């Protein structure tokens, strides 16, 4: 077959059929000289992070789908049905998000900037307010987040240009642009999400035993380490609650040094608890209380708890609020701690605005407001210290809570304030006449900003969503090792959801690889088919009109109504129609005599032997490989 094709092309070139060669070879030349499409422009692979998907108290939250295979459009397009909607953070709003869902969009991909520090503060505040609303409703549409890069930005701009053309006033322009414009097919590599069974939420506790008898009062210091945001893999939780766990670790370091020496060894037990699952209704704290109060005969939580101090979001601002479920009574240690906080803030840190916020526990709500409410429900005196005045503040559950939002000087100042107030309570310094403006932690005992910064850097370099913190992972092992340096009896506590009636259910496929393939719209295939058909029609017309062998009969030879083949190979008789259809498949040998009717036109390229007239008679000889452009034979 290849040899036959070669002979055909060779015959065409030798025949010098210019229009035919032009039609046949011009498309091939254009394809060869056209610049190739770079591979990076034809397809791009990037990482995407799926929105939260979990069940809490039997209520589903977040997106319920993870599979994506649809064409891309920007949020400004008129038609979003069954399309992957691309939107940049600067253009995102809750109204636009709802519009995409109402139009049955196939998916939503929110493109985040490379660094959050470059995002205007009003955009950050707006998105922090939107995140809880996005999670409050269940949606079947896959929602992903992607970090912007050059290739993804180019895809967005091209898609935006294609979407903008849909609003053209001319229907012909819209049709033409639709047929010729490039599109992008967005495809995820993962499978449908499924529930993760037997996932463990881990908490870590450690203690410093006081000097004296067995019935010493216990002060509990608590901070949850996990972070929360609309996308688990983007939840770094710098302020909430990286700042809280940083202060807890620094307090463990400071008081371990004080408890090392007999002169400064206080008559209080200090119990430190880094809880897990804080963003999921404080599941780690709940199970820890159940284990210590219901399933244990003796524990520090059962004997004599002075108060529980919970630390949550203390890395920003010039305000500190002590959130309580019940105002402390005078004469109690919790009231003394409240007074010491006020005293230290007024005399040593006058720039800090300190206040107490009283909020009763609403047992009708599924979610508790603050972590101290878990202890208050079990009748343990507790409060939460935070620079936030309301538990509904969006800063507590946002992917915008990154390292740059924590001010190192503010975090160091708040750590000093808390440490000074605790020390004055534990060592009863006010009753001993110590001036309120005299700091305790000075010189070698001074709180080190570099220490806090290193802990904050370690906490914020990794996402700490509860679904991602593995009990055997490096984060928990490092946390346990750090506490073991300063505390005694450090041990983990695990929480696993009940199989029959789980309080929480996590799902996988939270991080995937998405591919953007450059594609043409479906109407382009129809247009291409029309063009190919027109091209083939032009080629056929050129062949029939330009390269035919015109065979004329000699008037001296009697005409026959049916052409005959005679020669050494025998003879045959066929109709003219049959001859014109099948002559290209006949292989002629030299010396064959032909008898034609008055006229017969046959394409030259149909023969394997070219025609050459040697005599003016009925005998016509054929010689190979010498095809004339037009064969005129007079018989």
Present the secondary structure layout.
Layout: H1 2-15, H2 18-33, H3 39-42, E1 43-50, E2 53-56, E3 59-63, E4 69-74, E5 84-88, H4 94-102, E6 107-112, H5 121-136, E7 138-139, E8 143-147, H6 150-165, H7 171-180, E9 183-188, E10 195-196, E11 200-208, E12 218-224, H8 238-258, E13 269-275, H9 283-293, H10 300-303, E14 305-311, E15 319-324, H11 333-347, E16 353-358, H12 372-377, E17 382-386, H13 408-426, H14 449-460, H15 474-486, E18 488-496, E19 504-507, E20 511-519, H16 522-546, E21 548-552, E22 564-566, E23 572-573, H17 576-582, E24 593-595, E25 599-603, E26 609-611, E27 622-624, E28 633-634
InterPro entries: Nicalin, Peptidase_M28
Keywords: Endoplasmic reticulum, Glycoprotein, Membrane, Signal, Transmembrane, Transmembrane helix
GO molecular function: ribosome binding
What's this entry about, in short?
The chain is α/β, with parallel strands linked by helices and 635 residues long. It has 17 helices and 28 strands.
Main attributes of the structure:
635 residues, alpha/beta, eight-stranded mixed β-sheet, elongated, ribosome binding, Peptidase_M28, signal, endoplasmic reticulum
């Amino acid at each position: 077959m290849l040899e036959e094709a070669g002979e055909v092309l060779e015959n065409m070139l030798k025949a010098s059929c210019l229009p035919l060669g032009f039609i046949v070879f011009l498309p091939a030349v254009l394809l060869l000289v056209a610049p190739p499409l770079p591979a990076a422009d034809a397809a791009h692979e990037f990482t995407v992070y799926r929105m939260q998907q979990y069940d809490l108290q039997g209520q589903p939250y977040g997106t319920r789908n993870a599979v994506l295979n649809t064409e891309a459009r920007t949020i400004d397009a008129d038609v979003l049905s069954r399309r992957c909607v691309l939107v940049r953070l600067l253009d995102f709003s809750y109204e636009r998000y709802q519009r995409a869902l109402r139009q049955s969009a196939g998916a939503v991909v929110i493109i985040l900037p490379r660094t959050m520090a470059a995002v205007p503060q009003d955009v950050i505040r707006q998105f922090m307010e939107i995140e809880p609303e996005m999670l409050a409703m269940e949606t079947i549409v896959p929602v992903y987040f992607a970090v912007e890069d050059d290739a993804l930005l180019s895809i967005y701009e091209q898609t935006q240009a294609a979407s903008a053309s849909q609003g053209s006033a001319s229907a012909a322009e819209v049709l033409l642009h639709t047929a010729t414009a490039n599109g992008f097919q967005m495809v995820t590599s993962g499978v449908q999400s499924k529930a993760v069974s037997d996932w463990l939420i881990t908490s870590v506790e450690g203690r410093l035993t006081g000097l004296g008898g067995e019935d010493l009062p216990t002060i509990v210091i608590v901070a949850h380490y996990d972070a929360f945001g609309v996308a688990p893999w983007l939840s770094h939780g710098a302020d909430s609650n990286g700042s809280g766990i940083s202060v807890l670790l620094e307090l463990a370091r400071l008081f371990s040094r004080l408890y090392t020496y007999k002169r400064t060894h206080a008559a209080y037990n200090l119990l430190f608890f880094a809880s897990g699952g804080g963003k999921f209704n404080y599941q780690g704290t709940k199970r820890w209380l159940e284990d210590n109060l219901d399933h244990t005969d003796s524990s520090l939580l059962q004997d004599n708890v002075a108060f529980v101090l919970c630390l949550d979001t203390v890395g920003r601002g010039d305000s500190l609020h002590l959130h309580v479920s019940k105002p402390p009574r005078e004469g109690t240690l919790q009231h003394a701690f409240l007074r010491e906080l006020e005293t230290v803030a007024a005399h040593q840190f006058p720039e800090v605005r300190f206040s107490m916020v009283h909020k009763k526990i609403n047992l009708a709500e599924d979610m508790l407001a603050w972590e101290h409410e878990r202890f208050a429900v079990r009748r343990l005196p507790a409060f939460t210290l935070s620079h936030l005045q309301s538990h509904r503040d969006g800063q507590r559950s946002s992917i915008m809570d990154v390292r740059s939002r924590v001010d190192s000087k503010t975090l160091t100042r708040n750590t000093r304030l808390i440490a000074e107030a605790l020390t004055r309570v534990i060592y009863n310094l006010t009753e001993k006449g110590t001036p309120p403006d005299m700091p305790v932690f000075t010189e070698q005992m001074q709180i080190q900003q570099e220490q806090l910064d290193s802990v904050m850097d370690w906490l914020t370099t990794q996402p700490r969503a509860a679904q991602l913190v593995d009990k055997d992972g490096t984060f928990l092992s490092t946390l346990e090792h750090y506490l073991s340096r300063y505390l005694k009896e450090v041990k983990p506590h695990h929480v696993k959801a009940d199989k029959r009636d789980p309080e929480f259910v996590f799902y996988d496929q939270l991080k995937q690889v998405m591919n953007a393939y450059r594609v043409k719209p479906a109407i382009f295939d129809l247009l291409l088919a029309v063009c190919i058909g027109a091209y083939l029609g032009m080629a056929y017309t050129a062949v029939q009109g330009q390269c035919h062998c015109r065979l004329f009969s000699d008037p001296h030879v009697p005409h026959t109504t049916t052409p005959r083949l005679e020669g050494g190979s025998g003879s045959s008789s066929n109709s003219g129609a049959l001859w014109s259809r099948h002559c290209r498949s006949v292989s002629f040998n030299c010396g064959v005599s032909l008898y034609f009717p008055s006229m017969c036109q046959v394409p030259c390229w149909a023969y394997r032997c070219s025609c050459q007239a040697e005599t003016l008679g009925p005998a016509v000889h054929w010689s190979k490989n010498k095809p004339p452009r037009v064969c005129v034979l007079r018989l």
